[in-house]
Amino acid sequence: MKKDIDIKSVAKLAAIKLTDADEKKFEKDLNIILEHVDALSKMNIEDEEINIHPLGEKLNLREDVSSEFLTHDEAMSNSPETEDGHFVVPPSLD
Amino acid sequence: MNIANLSISEISNLYKNKELKPSEVYKEVFTNASLSESIIHAHLKLFQDEATEASKLSDERYAKGNPLSDIDGIPIAIKDNINLKNHETTCSSKMLSNYVSPYDATVITKLRNNGVVFTGKTNLDEFAMGSSTENSAFGPTKNPWNPEHVPGGSSGGSAAVVSVGSAIASLGSDTGGSIRQPASFCGVVGFKPTYGTVSRYGLVAFASSLDQIGPITNSVEDAKILYNSIKGHDPLDATSIKESTVEIPTDKNAKIGVIKELMEEGISDESKKEVEKTIKLLEENGNKVVEVSLPLTKMALSIYYLIAPAECSANLSRFDGVRYGIREAGATSYEMMENTRAEGFGEEVKKRILLGTYALSAGYYDAYYGQALKARSAITKDFENIFKEVDYLISPTTPTPAFKFGEKTENPLEMYMSDLCTIPANLAGIPAISIPTGLSKEDMPLSIQLMSPARTDSSLLEFSETIEKLLGFNQRTLLLEDMK
Description:
The complex is a heterodimer.
Chain A: H1 7-14, H2 20-37, H3 72-76, E1 82-83, E2 86-87
Antiparallel strand pairs in A: 1-2
Chain B: H1 8-16, H2 22-40, E1 43-46, H3 48-63, E2 76-79, H4 106-113, E3 118-122, H5 156-164, E4 169-174, H6 180-186, E5 189-192, E6 212-217, H7 220-230, E7 255-259, H8 269-284, E8 288-292, H9 300-315, H10 333-344, H11 347-360, H12 365-386, E9 392-395, H13 412-416, H14 423-428, E10 432-439, E11 445-451, H15 457-471, H16 479-483
Parallel strand pairs in B: 2-3, 2-4, 7-8, 7-9
Antiparallel strand pairs in B: 1-3, 4-6, 5-6, 5-10, 9-11, 10-11
Helix pairs in contact in B: 2-3, 5-6, 7-15, 9-11, 9-12
């Protein structure tokens, strides 16, 4: 299964800007890890089920009703930039 | 009398008998912190003024004979990835260096309601990713037994503060061994409960299907007291389970399996000897001990290093410079995010996000993440089958005692191997505990790990108390004794 990783495209997907030195280092480390985990591809486990909860439990969702929690100001209190109760970000396009 | 070495129940009884006041114990733990912090750097923040004031309210409650619980006035430190209202929660990351939590985690609410006054926030590997605290953006924690050695990780700060007595107990989080491995390296008890028994609400998520909060303490009894104070179903955590306790034998009828694969190559002789010593004591106690085979434990590391990074890449996508954390400028929103994440995350976190992003990307999802989830189900079934034959499983907690700084930073797999024995319990969602057993040739702590079926946490703790008594090992680091 193992294929060499295209670090530039993965970094783009992960939205992390990498330097050339970073790319080299991460490519090497990730290939070491992928080489190791490749052992899984040889396991005969096609019929195994996939559980999202480790104990196979259903997720316990709350009633869809509103309740008191954080105020608007509290919820935004950690944002680097806000204006009139909105988050401010740079433009999406150049 | 060294207060910091007393158990929670001993302190609680002294409070009730009016022989000791909470404010006196807080004074003692802050004195210990002031002596030890310059050497071990286990805390990121100490709440000395706030806690000293609040402990006086606890004094008053005991004076009136009206404490809120048996842990009222017990000084507890919190790993800095658990939210405590109006305090920073940095996760030892530059990304969250300015983050102040507007709410309490459920475990914090529960402890507050029981009268606990928190002593501070403890150091960790950034976002709980690591096994040595060397990945903290704010500098590593040192092992109180020998500062040339790592305290383990990721909850290295939480283990070191209990070991050195700058808190009576602490909370950590365990995704692949992050409570048990540092507890083992620092000579204290670390307990990872069954997945879902303790709410994760307010714990900054690393790998949601593996993360679990648990106690780090001086004794198994303390771990039991703290666990009972924080457990319980929480509607704010959808993965939290409705309580259903399963009981298994805790006396000499308890049957123990030794995991063959965790007593083989890759495990040091010193670590194996501690298991053998414990087996002998159990047999003398009348318990039956048999060797069992769990061949898939050999695959656990591979399964973990796909599932944990995959979940981490999704969870940490929230750190985008918009809602919280630092922001680095960029001409567009995407550029701002790229720059923010490049600046805010450290190397190990970036590595795991990249690995997880790759494993979840189109064309690789089924082969990597899907396959890992199926392998996880297979290993879980193996555990269920073994637990039809035995009540508990025993192994070393760690392949070696605490290693030295820089020893395992070159090759990522070297560091990951230190979680070899602890990861399987996270994959299967079962409870597991690390119990100190003795000292190595270099006078570093050694331990054993005990695991049991899901939902048998209370039995596991009860049986662990028996093992702790059989071992009779309760030596603490002498770091402060030498200084006082």
